[in-house]
Amino acid sequence: MTKKKYATFMAIMLLISVSLKAQTLKDSTIFSFKDVNNVVTQKTKQYGVENVLVIVDIDNTLLTSNVDLGGDIWYNWQRGKIKDAIPTKKQKIENCFYEDVIGLLYELGTMKLTDSLIPKYLNNWQNNGTTVFALTSRSPRYRTATQRELLKNGINLSKSPITQIDGSKAVYNYTLEREMSYRDGLMMTTGMNKGDMIAHILGRTGRSYKAIIFVDDSDKNVKDVKHKFKDNTAIDFTVFYFDKIVRDRKIANGGILITKKQAKKMTADWEKLSKTLKDIFPGRNTKNKCVSPN
After folding, report:
1. Distance CA 57, CA 103 (A)
2. Are 111 and 66 spatial neighbours (Cβ–Cβ below 8 Å)?
3. CB 195 within 8 A of CB 224
4. Residues in CB range of 53: below 8 A, 6 or more apart
5. For residues 129-149, b (16+ Cβ closer than 10 Å) or e, as one string?
6. What is the pLDDT of residues 45-80, one digit of tens each?
7. Could you tell me which residues are beta bridge partners of residue 53?
8. DSSP secondary structure code for residue 282 in this structure
9. Any idea which of 107-121, 197-211, 280-294 has the lowest mean pLDDT?
10. For residue 2, what pLDDT is reported?
């Protein structure tokens, strides 16, 4: 083979490689689960239900908080992740935020569907035999409150969850970089990289799929998953960035995610709740000590 022919051959192979990767990992921004349903239907017809895996986030993807306090947007605001609304020193909760505050608000708070058709879509996928599980950044400590809100909104993740390679039930509860648990179709990862977490559970169960559909409202999570699987041409991977909640809120707020009025209300709500709890349960008034021992 001449140098010229070799160079031409290598160029063609490179183009094929790039083309394969482009076809294998696809991503798009969506505002409705109808788009997810269309792809799940397409992939199950193409590969068979046994070869398709659907992975969905919870907060601001399946469900969203009924009030701001304790919701996903409130959490990102408290952590300084929203550029146009950084909390003031007075607004920021420093004391026992992870130890007490988040768990308390999950227990007290209620949620609603982001899309009224989600239970119907999920039930159809599950009844059809498609493997479905939720992948959340929440800690395993909050499993009970999380499952309560899912079930209350018609979402039962235990119907067709990922199982071990022999078909037996998968139940995991241990510490990697942080705490992680998986049971009944709900994987809780304490904020660890979701790309790594998907790879971890596939490896742990011994499962492999020809097509995977991932849905999340976090740009970081979407990027992490894309980065993890960008070179894996064996999987037809679709990544959906679900932006409905943020988009709708910005439209309502004139282009910003949190208004000054909303920030003040979240602060006032927390102060009122905190005072009420301390008045009724004086043992919670521990000053700089947390109620939770860890």
Report:
1. 18
2. yes
3. yes
4. 130, 131, 132, 162, 207, 209, 211, 212, 213
5. ebbbbbbbbbbbbbbebbbeb
6. 999 999 999 999 999 999 999 999 999 999 999 999
7. 131, 212
8. G
9. 280-294
10. 57
How much is the average pLDDT of 252-277? 97
The Cβ of residue 182 has, within 10 Å, a number of other Cβ atoms equal to: 24
* pLDDT grade for 17, boundaries at 50, 70 and 90: very low
Q: What is the pLDDT of residue 6?
A: 46
Which residues in 208-234 are b (16+ Cβ under 10 Å) and which e? Answer: ebebbbbbbbbeebbebbbebbeeeee
Domains of the chain: 22-66+110-255 (3.40.50.1000)
Q: How far is the C-alpha of 187 from the C-alpha of 172, rounded, in Å?
A: 9
Q: Which two tokens stand for residue 109?
A: 């708070």
Which amino acid makes up residue 5? Answer: K
- Identify the residue whose tokens are 């709500």: 269
